[in-house]
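Sat 14:20. Reprocessing the chain from the morning session after the first attempt stalled halfway. Input below, unchanged.
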Amino acid sequence: MSKNTNDPSGLPAHRFNKFFDSRGPGGKMAPPQQQSTSTCTAPKLIEVPANNIIQYAHNGYVYCLTIVRTGSGGEQLVSGGGDGAVKLWSFTNPLKEPVLLHTFETNHSIMSFVNADSFLYAGLAAGIVKIWDLETLQLVRSNHPDEDDLSKNFSTADTLTLAIHHHSLFKGSKRGLEQWNFQGRQTKVISASAPSSSPWISHGGKTVLSTVIINSPQATYLIAGGNDSDLVMWDITESNPDTFHDTELTTRRPAEASLSNEQLLRSLAEFVTFRTISSQPDRFFGDCRRCATFLRELLQSYGAQAKLIPLANTSSGEGRNPIVYGKFVANKVSDIPTKTIIFYGHYDVIFADETDNDWVTGQPFTMTALDGYMYARGVSDNKGPILAAIFAAAELHRERALTTNVVFLIEGEEECGSGGFQTAICENKEFLDIDDSTVDGIILSNSYWIDEDNPCLNYGLRGIINVNVKIFSDGPDLHSGVNGGLAREPTIDLIHLLSKLTTENENDNDQGGSAATKILIPNFYDKVLKTDQAERDEYDEIIKRVVNNSATLNSQSFHLNRERLMAMWRLPSLTIHRINVSGPPAGTNLTIIPKSASAAVSLRIVPNQSIEQIKHNLVIYLTECFEGFHSDNHIEITFSSQQSEPWLGDRHNHLYRRLSHAIKRQWNKDPLFIREGGSIPAVRFLEKSFDAPAVQFPCGQSSDNAHLGNERLRISNLFKAREIMKQFFMA
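Finished this time. Tokens:
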């Protein structure tokens, strides 16, 4: 706030100044300023009251300020200073001092800001760029010129100005302008040292002090100002591909958003455009975060409470993709105490190569309808089922027919092992506002039918243990022509050791099935549940119904038998995924004896087996086998944190009965009860956390090609899945 007066005596020119008004050499003083003879209105003194000044807001110069919009529609002030602090301020009441909300600490001066979506991009001294998600208050990326290959062209000069357009970040410094593309494409340096024929000439070698992006209907321009008194403008329209998301989400939904099936398809078409590839955070962190915001806004537009829940940062200090939390509150009066259903899903997807011509539709992140199917990465795993569930709950809520609370927990790290998910749920139990005693069940739709024609319900998943076995020597890599035969080689020791893990399985095992190999870890099969005749008969019935009654069969269905199903679904297995050796890249030098060799191994385990007991037995067994080699080499066994417990649901409980009834109403046939050999880490954790049973409702067909090229989902399956979940949420 400021005040003004018509009395000019308080202006700085009329005040005594200890420096300017002091006597100089010889006792002379500077002549006083002459009174203006202008006929203009008398000047006004504008002052800021002391109570509106935040003393020592930063312990250094305040280099940059910006205003950002919050998810709730409000505004916050962001300040950056020479003390390396980025501070968020609330100034909702102009009569009161702004309130400090949060501080991000860094080790370098903050020189510049730019804001896009929920991201704050900060340019630091020494050429560093840091990116925070203001919604989850997390550092999601820190770019150091000497550490990141993507930024190898970034200079170490202070980042004096930033501008962002789609996936391109423009950085100005005394070196000129540089362009960094977050999708991992070629970084372009817009440098003063570029040849005169280059279109990227920046202020003749002077410092770039300011930048701005100007959008017009015809073109997009980047304008830069430097210390040479010039403005330089480039046409950057070509860096505006249609596949990029704008800095605003592409759809803003009215308060009464449509819930038609046509809107469901439009929302899904937008949903799949986000390249939510969690396995490559350096390239796709922006799309993942924007997708989470898209889901939060979608839930809110349909009347749900919604928020993003941050996950613990990685060991490198950068943020993982947040969990999207949404809650539709029951709004139908009932004499029965209100229960809660939790829907679990994931918005991240497996990588899809956009240059791969194997996709029949051309682009994996552009949804295309063809012959009754929708093709796109993630359309079946797991974005289509997520939207079917949201639209089902939203429709009941709008009709005031929702008798249960429906809570959505949609994570963005499932394809990478759900790292941080369990910790985030445990730490936010109070925020989730879920009374464990009221949770009726957990539902997920992250599986597929056994064929093309028979709807299914899944009641079992295998767990997984990932282990790395390394054999190494004390010396360096050696030359096979000089040292071959002198000592035991780590690679040969490793191959011998791996051969001790399995053997051929000549007979049916005690569990009634037949796997291709038998695992030799001591006591490995002791806890595997035995089969009875009733279970064998169920497998035979599945085979009979699938093979005899399917109008279309994929190649696997022709070879189905009880033993194959049991080997895939209810028996454990061991896989050696790859072997790595030290030395130059494979094929470049065939004379090296590697000093170390390691193997990535996984074990798929089944219900009643203990992860910790198997890990303990495996370490003892491999160590004893290796000691029997009497080798001078050494062994190292490490387990990945990405592990998953097996899950076995109760297919006879009330949740499966409700789903079975709803499926029969939609498909006019009873569902098949099946199991699956894959793993979903969150299922058993959620069951234990909320003391409630889980059910798995497959949405798509066996030919959906999840994780493969030409992933697809039949439109009728999507619409019927919505109706099935609507009936399920009504009970």
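The domain at 261-461+646-730 is CATH 3.40.630.10 (Aminopeptidase).
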